[in-house]
Amino acid sequence: MAAQPVNVLITGANRGLGLEMVKQMVEAPCPVRKLFACCRDPHGPRAEALQALAKKHPGIISVIRLDATDLCSIKDSAQLVGSMVGTGGLNLLINNAGMMAKGTLRDTTPEDMQSTFNTNVMGPMNMIKEFLPHLRAAVQANGKPGMSCNKAAVISISSVLGSLDLVKQTYALFPAISYRISKTSLNMLTACAAEELKEDGILFSVLHPGWVRTDMGGDAGEIDAPESVQGMLRVIASLTEQHNGAFLDYKGKPVPW
Ligand code: NDP
């Protein structure tokens, strides 16, 4: 995916889109330098496929424990990653981990709301804050003008369900109100980070992966994970400062806010 080897971190890397991203990144003709594949339980049964992949690519994939709802685990992983990348920094942080609670306004519980917000919004926000020194180090090490995912970027996986403009078309089909509110918030977080940190040279964007057949997307999804990830990695590789704060789908098409 990259013109020069870069250091990448992906959250929720043990299954679904996150695992497929790890696969495609290490199998690309120009692979990554270091890939930090984060998951909640690296030694549990849900991480077996990821561990098998890491075994095939020693020295490139590091499986790291990270729970997006646990600030201590985010701080620990930031410290560990910092010690492994040094002054080269972290070039690309992908906030992929996410959860979806289904439900309308009437049946969504405060617990659904809280856990979805903690995972889908507080997680990415704490990731940005804790990994900022390593993203800044990558900007320093790169030394070139402009913005790109080879230099320093945070890409967060959002959803068309977070789009305010598209609610009328999509609400009846997928109410998932806590999920929608969380993804709208993630979009705002990204727009704010893009604005606040533009002088730092770090690019921030949100991507919609399509409706994908994963545990979350279900069997009725429109595409499989390999197609979604192929598209997203192509889009990620093409991003420049013009896309700072952008909301794009896996084909590179702007999504209405
Ligand atoms: P999956 O449900 O298949 O995978 C979700 C991943 O997130 C798992 O690795 C899961 O880990 C991880 N995760 C959940 N909660 C946490 C947490 N607290 N800390 C760390 N990791 C966590 O979903 P997808 O792969 O389909 O989705 C990936 C992203 O894409 C999500 O952000 C989702 O909202 C977004 N998306 C997906 C769409 C789709 O159609 N599939 C459509 C639009 C957006 P664990 O195994 O431990 O549960």
Q: Indicate the low-confidence ranges by residue numbers.
A: none
The hetero molecules present are: NADPH dihydro-nicotinamide-adenine-dinucleotide phosphate
Alpha-carbon Rg, integer: 17 Å
Main pleated-sheet profile: 7 strands, parallel
Number of strands: 7
Distance between the termini: 27 Å
Mean pLDDT, all residues: 96
* Helix-strand topology string: EHEHEHEHEHHEHE
By CATH, the superfamily comes out as NAD(P)-binding Rossmann-like Domain
Number of domains: 1
CATH structural fold name: Rossmann fold
The structure class reads alpha/beta
Strand order of the largest sheet: 3-2-1-4-5-6-7
Protein name: C-factor-like
Pfam family, one: adh_short
Organism: Scomber scombrus
GO molecular function, one term: oxidoreductase activity
Structure description:
- This is C-factor-like.
- It comes from Scomber scombrus (Atlantic mackerel).
- The protein is an alpha/beta fold and 257 residues long.
- Helices cover 42% and strands 13% of the residues.
- The model has no long low-confidence stretch (mean pLDDT 96).
- It has helices spanning 16-27, 48-56, 71-85, 110-142, 167-170, 177-196, 225-238, and strands at residues 7-10, 34-39, 61-65, 92-95, 153-157, 203-208, 246-249.
- The protein is globular, with a radius of gyration of 17 Å.
- It has one domain (7-249): Rossmann fold, CATH 3.40.50.
